[in-house]
Amino acid sequence: MLKQRVITALIAAPTVIAAIFFLPLTAFAAVFLVLAGLGVFEWANLAGIRSTAAKAAYLIGYALLGYLLLNAPSSWPAVLKCVVAFWVLAVVVVLTFPASGQVLIGPVLVPAGYVAFVGAWLALVALLVAGGPWLIVWVLIVVWAADIGAYFAGRQFGRRKLALLVSPGKTWEGAIGGTLLAVLLGSAMGMSVPALQSVAPEPRQWIVGSLIVAIVSVFGDLFESALKRARGVKDSGGLFPGHGGMLDRVDALIAALPCVALAVTGQP
């Protein structure tokens, strides 16, 4: 399992980073809209959308919404605020699970999929415009570090369960280890990459920012775990060997990206 995860990551990560740095804005938006669409398809299954026609309509609606938002940049701040509010509610779901599992039903999840994935995609576009490619890579590094650190710290030191009723395999020791690695790498990158200094010149901004992103990423991961548990599935899909589906790989990112985008665009 670990070998498959490493091989998949070694292929996917450089490809994604190359796209971030070398694609022009329109192509970048189109490519990542398609990639996020894979997650939308998996979300459709979790939301109880079964027929091929219904899934096609759901994906068309997603693509149309993305197109409209791309051509309406004045709406981005308001949309990002709504997306962040959605993730605040997701935190409440995690903290009150399994009682909150009653709200994770089709009529709620169908529109929620648009909020989660269109919101994350829009955050990527907004970050590229407002902060440049290095800022997106910074978010990726912090989230990946939190995930990798939690995996190894949890295996080595994990004793106390973090959220037993949501994800029994996660521990406090793993979450702390992942957060520490995320803060270390995120703050080091923020303070050493010249392109990031124009975004936030103070070291404490990168330390606090890395800490917040790491914590948000944990809740993004836990929310997907609660969603899968409520819907009775183990993985969102089988797209990535050793990693599960697209949603399994980006659950932390889709929560973290809108928060960073909202902060960087200077919105209160």
Q: What features would you describe in this structure?
A:
With 268 residues, the protein is mainly alpha-helical. The protein has one domain. Helix content is 77%, strand content 3%. The chain contains 10 helices and 2 strands. The chain has helices at residues 2-22, 25-46, 52-70, 76-96, 106-130, 133-157, 172-192, 194-197, 203-231, 246-264; strands at 161-163, 167-171. The protein has a two-stranded antiparallel ribbon. Helix 4 (76-96) packs across helix 5. The longest helix is centred in the C-terminal third of the chain and has 29 residues, at 203-231. The N and C termini lie far apart (43 Å).
Structural class: mainly alpha
Q: Total number of β-strand segments?
A: 2
Compute the CA-based radius of gyration: 18 Å
Strand order of the largest sheet: 1-2
Shape: globular
Number of domains: 1
Order of helices and strands: HHHHHHEEHHHH
- The share of residues in extended strands comes to under 5%
How many alpha or pi helices? 10
What kind of assembly state do the chains in view correspond to? single chain
**What's the pLDDT, averaged over the residues?**
92
N-to-C CA distance: 43 Å
Uncertain residue segments: none
Helical amount: over 70%
Largest sheet: number of strands, sense, barrel closure: 2 strands, antiparallel
